[in-house]
Each structure stands twice: as C-alpha cells, then as structure tokens.
C-alpha cells in the first residue's frame, strides 16, 4: 500500500535455501507486515511494514525468527535510500509483445528496483536505488529498447516536457508517431497488391509466376522478414515477425505462392488497422486528460507576459482571461467569474468564484477576468498531481494484466514447438500423410499463436477505465485498485467530512415563547456568543448574518464547560448546554430535545426558558443515495466510524440505513475497529475505507482499498489513499465500482473472445479445416476487434 516503511536485512552466513523460505513465510505472517521477500542469492530479506505498525517490534520478532531457524546467522540492517524514478518515452513503440520484453530485460539491469513499460502511453518507468547510477542504467535501458524494437527513439521525459513545442512541431511529431504507416509504405503495399492481382489474373509460366509473386511478397512483407532476421540475430526469436515470416516462407516452400503473398498482405493491412485503432484509443485517452495548461499570463509591474507555467513562482500574480485554463493553484485577488471544473471534478455545473476564493489549476475560466495570487508552484499544483497520478497509474498493473504478460511468454514458444511437432510427427506416423499437407497445418498454427490481441487490448482496457474514472473526478492510483473494486463486500465510512459536510450549521430553531420571533431568539443567541471563537458560536453568528452592535452587550461572562451569560439589550441571557440549565436550576421539558441530532444550545431570557437552537453537522445531500447504490452493487456491510458521541452517531446511522455504527473513537481505535471488521469470519471480499484523507491516513492505509473524499489539493489524501474522489460526493464510490465492473466485463470479453477464436482456429488448422486466411483473422483480426472493444470502457456510465 502507499504508506509503508521498507526495511532490508542482510542475513550474513545464511546458506540454507529451505530455511530462507521458512523465514520469508513466518515474517510475512507478523502483524502489520505487508511484504516479506527473501533473496537467497544476495541473502537479503526485504520487509514492508505499515506506518501504523510498531516497526521496532517487527524487527525484534524478525530477528527472533531468524535466530530460531538459523542460530549462526548474523542479522544486519541495510540502509535504504529512496528510490529515484526516471521516465523515458519510447517514441514509435508499436509492438505490445516487444514492450513486455523490454520491461523484463530492463528489470534485470543491475541497480534497477523496478521497471514498467506502459504500452498505451509509450512510457518506460524505471526506479533505481541510487541516483548516481541513473546515467548508466538509462544508457543500458536505451540499448535494450532499441535492440528489441528497432526504429524506436528513446527520449527522457523531463527533456520532452521542457521542450516548448509549437503547434506545427507537435503536429509533425504526432504525425510521425501516430500515423503508424507513412506514404512510402502505402505506395509499397499498393504496388505489391497490384503485382499480386497480376499474378492471380494472368496465366504465366511457373518461373515467371514465381518471380511475380516473389516480387509482390518482398514489396509487401520484406520489412517483416528483415525485422524477423534482425531480431533473431539479437536473440529475439518468438515474435510476430518471426511467426509471419516462417508461415509465409513456408507457404512458398510448398508451392502456395498466392496464399503466401495474400496472407502477408492481409497481415500488413490488419497491422495498419490495428495501429490506427491503438493510436485512436491513445488520442481518446489523452483527450480525456487534456487539462495541462500551455501558458500563464504573468503580471510583471504594469505589463503582462505570456510564460510557461513552470516559470511562475509562489507569490507571483497571474491574469486569467475568459476562455483560458487556470494554469496554477492560487487565490483570487480581484474579479468574479464562473469556472468550468468538469475536467477536474467531473461536475458539469459551473462554480462561481470571487475575490478571496481559492482557485484550482486545470479549471476553465468561463466569463470574467481574474487576477490570481499563485499559492503553489506548477509541480505541486492540482493539475500536475492529477496528470502524474493518471499517467503513472499503469505502473501498478492489475493481476489480470500480470497474468496475461506471464502467459504470453510461455504461450508463443509452446505453440511454435507444437507446430513443429505437427509438421514432423504425423507424416512419419500416419500412413499416406504428406509433409506438405502437415507443414501447411503447422504454418496455420504459427500464424494463430501471436498473443497481441490480449497483450494490447487488456492494458488498453484498464488504462481506458482509469482515464474514464478520472474524467468523472475519480483518480485511481493503479489498475490493480481498479480491478480490486470489483470484489468489495464491506465499505467503512468516516463520518465528518465524508457522510456529513464537516461544517457546523444552525439546523433548527425551536422557539417556546410567544413574546419573541425565531429571528429575535437567534439574535439574542448571536449577541450572547459574539465574543466567543468557538465553532458553535461562529455557526450562530453566521446564521444570524447581521452585524452585532457590541455596545448592546453588558456583563459578558463565559462559564467554561457550560456556556455564556450576558446582558443583551437590558435582558439577562443564558446560552449553554444541559449542564448550565441544571447549574442555574432552570426547569424545562428535556423530552423535547431527546430526538434532536446535534449540539443543543439552550436559551434562557430573564430566568425564563425560551427555547433551544440545534447546531449540527449536516448530512450530505447524496449520502443516502450513495448507501442505496452501494447495496444495489452487492456491498454486504456498510459501517460508520466516528469520534462523535454515540447519540449523534447512531442517529445518523439510522437516517442513512447503515448496518453498524461505532462512536467516540480515537484515530488508533478506528484502526482497531477496521482490523476487527477485516478479521470477521465468512468475509471474502475487499474492505474499503472512505475518509477525508487528512486525519484518516492510518485507516486509509490499513484498508484493502483506501478512498479519500474531497481530495482536491490535499497532499494527505493523495499520499495515503489508493483512490481519490475529487469532489465531496459519496455517490462517486458507487460510480467507481460501476466503472471497475464495466472495465472487468470488457477485459474478460476480450480474453474469452481471443482464446475462443484462437482455440477454434488452432483445432481447425490441426484438422486441416482452416486455411491461413482464418489464421490471420485469428491473429490481427481478433486484435483489431479487441482494441475497439476495449475502447468502449471510455464510455463507462458513472450513474
């Protein structure tokens, strides 16, 4: 999870592999340990412990475990420096299988902690232990990337970001990278296709026919064969270029010239459409997060200069004109306007801002001219954090993605060896069987075996789900959390700021005297509370709205723990709690306040009980709807934890229809209650904790999935939570689960579709009932359809 402490222990003298496994297993079962990993080769035990846990106790228990299993081993702690991260852009990356190979090899570079290739955004994210090793590691990673997929260009992301690219240059770059095929290639394929038609329609002699089809083949598929040979020379054998090269050359070898050319042509056309589909999806996802501002209008004296947002410092003043994106977080110094916040929060209703209001980067100024004081530099601004979260979310892969990546490594070589057996064994074992017939069947096997449909469409589906969720104001820190939301059976809520607004407000005035109106009773309360800084007093003054003439107040006396006594407009007024009423022997009907939810301020004027004011933390408008929607989605247990008193907690629980309410809890007691809920018998799904992200970090971290509410600009929320909801709406939790379920459905549709089609064609091919046409469809055709299907996740409905 996000907030853990990592420790590495060197076990000097460890020489028993079996004992190493036992140590790893027993340490993993210690309380608060989230990871225990033993590297027997380096004799290093890596442990991750929750920040809420007792790290010293875990270290002591670990040492005891080692001493018991291996008494002669000396345990020493390794000093860990924070991992440095480097992001490289792989410009021109077009092979999903190659992306997987690049990731695997870069992970094995000495000094690399972790490496992830995101095929969708074409990023290679490398984490290294020591910053001084970065130049060497980047150089090695670049060599690996270029070796595995020739033609790609490796660019440092920081350099790429700092480049001020003009619109023309940007268009040229996207044209080179995203078109997938240039005009020269189109002419080459067209020429090959014409020659192919000539060979089919004209009745040539065998030799001329071979020359025509061979020329056509070289025009259409020469680049594929060349790439396959280049990859084989580098030790990269089992890829789609090799499979297509062997299959089509094999077709020529058995005299099937037209089919060899046609299959390669179909393959190249399929690759073209696949490239178009993938690039379309990339552009669609990029468009979802088109919130990065291009410039800022920096005010320098009486002049305004257009600069890069990175060049603006905290304390500078910027001008935001109508129609422009707000480039940095700040405070409005002058002007009023309506802001379109939909790109940040997913809310379609514009928000009004005026002088003194906070303003967030990434929003769009609709009408007024705003002068803004910058409060955060660009790297720390809301838009920068959102972009970083969304763009790097793919580095935390879902279990399904990891499975497919691992599966692809074994699947293709296995099918190649089965194809080899299919070409050799039957002709030797079955009477009358010919090598040409079974080689053809084996070639069909080879064409089908490429796993691109899965390797491309599954990450694309998850990335689309993350992009769609962010458009709705829901930030996922990784596709692993998106997938985990499919299996939620318990949701635990904090109360204040999550289910309630977290703001004290006068919600009821009960006037029990005929001599005063409700407004007059509130006025007496406001005058009495006017000298107090307590939140309750402030809420009364806010409800009163008028100015308080303090010359009307005499004999002001604040009675600690009880309330206030003052002389207001010549009348003696008491405003306080039940204890004050009993202290002053004021009689009233206590039953009238029994069912009230909130803090009761009793009002006594000239020794006569006049009524009471209820001040409470209001329930959010859509809290009840959120609870109902979660139940419809199959969540079995809905629980609330609060530090508030029992009466208020239980009343809110009843109003919302919650299953359980635990009140009067301190922060550490919330963690204990969460662990108790997590350990209940019969619970199989994931436990989600939803809090405001500021004072709930320990519980957010401890839950299977931590969701922070109203996380805009909150460093604590973004750091501690796995999912950040940018608004204060609890109903967005149900929206997140709906997006997760739709993403999973589409991902599994692709898995089942790809396996089913490939399986059927493999069986038909082995039986001699499928030609290479069906085989190519099972490869590139299925990939194209899977990519288009994956893009449907972008249209996920959140309501």
TrEMBL record:
<keyword id="KW-1133">Transmembrane helix</keyword>
<dbReference type="InterPro" id="IPR059000">
    <property type="entry name" value="ATPase_P-type_domA"/>
</dbReference>
<dbReference type="InterPro" id="IPR027256">
    <property type="entry name" value="P-typ_ATPase_IB"/>
</dbReference>
<feature type="transmembrane region" description="Helical">
    <location>
        <begin position="442"/>
        <end position="467"/>
    </location>
</feature>
<keyword id="KW-0104">Cadmium</keyword>
<keyword id="KW-0067">ATP-binding</keyword>
<dbReference type="InterPro" id="IPR018303">
    <property type="entry name" value="ATPase_P-typ_P_site"/>
</dbReference>
<keyword id="KW-1003">Cell membrane</keyword>
<dbReference type="Pfam" id="PF00403">
    <property type="entry name" value="HMA"/>
</dbReference>
<dbReference type="InterPro" id="IPR023298">
    <property type="entry name" value="ATPase_P-typ_TM_dom_sf"/>
</dbReference>
<dbReference type="InterPro" id="IPR008250">
    <property type="entry name" value="ATPase_P-typ_transduc_dom_A_sf"/>
</dbReference>
<keyword id="KW-0547">Nucleotide-binding</keyword>
<dbReference type="InterPro" id="IPR036412">
    <property type="entry name" value="HAD-like_sf"/>
</dbReference>
<keyword id="KW-0597">Phosphoprotein</keyword>
<feature type="transmembrane region" description="Helical">
    <location>
        <begin position="747"/>
        <end position="769"/>
    </location>
</feature>
<comment type="similarity">
    <text>Belongs to the cation transport ATPase (P-type) (TC 3.A.3) family. Type IB subfamily.</text>
</comment>
<keyword id="KW-1278">Translocase</keyword>
<keyword id="KW-0479">Metal-binding</keyword>
<protein>
    <recommendedName>
        <fullName>Cd(2+)-exporting ATPase</fullName>
        <ecNumber>7.2.2.21</ecNumber>
    </recommendedName>
</protein>
<keyword id="KW-0472">Membrane</keyword>
<dbReference type="InterPro" id="IPR006121">
    <property type="entry name" value="HMA_dom"/>
</dbReference>
<feature type="transmembrane region" description="Helical">
    <location>
        <begin position="410"/>
        <end position="430"/>
    </location>
</feature>
<dbReference type="InterPro" id="IPR017969">
    <property type="entry name" value="Heavy-metal-associated_CS"/>
</dbReference>
<feature type="transmembrane region" description="Helical">
    <location>
        <begin position="775"/>
        <end position="794"/>
    </location>
</feature>
<dbReference type="InterPro" id="IPR023299">
    <property type="entry name" value="ATPase_P-typ_cyto_dom_N"/>
</dbReference>
<dbReference type="Pfam" id="PF00702">
    <property type="entry name" value="Hydrolase"/>
</dbReference>
<feature type="domain" description="HMA">
    <location>
        <begin position="5"/>
        <end position="74"/>
    </location>
</feature>
<dbReference type="InterPro" id="IPR051014">
    <property type="entry name" value="Cation_Transport_ATPase_IB"/>
</dbReference>
<feature type="domain" description="HMA">
    <location>
        <begin position="84"/>
        <end position="146"/>
    </location>
</feature>
<keyword id="KW-0812">Transmembrane</keyword>
<dbReference type="InterPro" id="IPR044492">
    <property type="entry name" value="P_typ_ATPase_HD_dom"/>
</dbReference>
<dbReference type="InterPro" id="IPR001757">
    <property type="entry name" value="P_typ_ATPase"/>
</dbReference>
<dbReference type="Pfam" id="PF00122">
    <property type="entry name" value="E1-E2_ATPase"/>
</dbReference>
<dbReference type="InterPro" id="IPR036163">
    <property type="entry name" value="HMA_dom_sf"/>
</dbReference>
<dbReference type="InterPro" id="IPR023214">
    <property type="entry name" value="HAD_sf"/>
</dbReference>
<feature type="transmembrane region" description="Helical">
    <location>
        <begin position="210"/>
        <end position="229"/>
    </location>
</feature>
